[in-house]
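Much of what follows relies on a compact textual record of a protein's fold. A record is reproduced here so that you can trace the correspondence yourselves:
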Amino acid sequence: NNCSFSLRYALWHNKNLIFDESTITDICRAPFWYCKNVKIQNSEINGVKSLRESSNILVEKTNIISNEFGWKCHNLELFNSNIESEYAF
């Protein structure tokens, strides 16, 4: 809760993660990969390849700017969020 990440591969292979009121900066690369049971809410996600090969993901009230977002994901739900992407899903 209330964190900021500015690094590559920040949150790979996480399970049962709640990412709330937090930020992934635009210099991040591939922050959420291979994750399961993740709730992302009230946050800002920037950077290339933000979410990939993950399952059971809930995104709510989040702004996302990512050239590639949501590739090879299963059970991905989005509510009240904005996505800016060239190659989403």
Summary: The two ends are 26 Å apart (CA to CA). The chain has no helices and 13 strands. The CA atoms of residues 53 and 72 lie 5 Å apart. The mean pLDDT is 95.
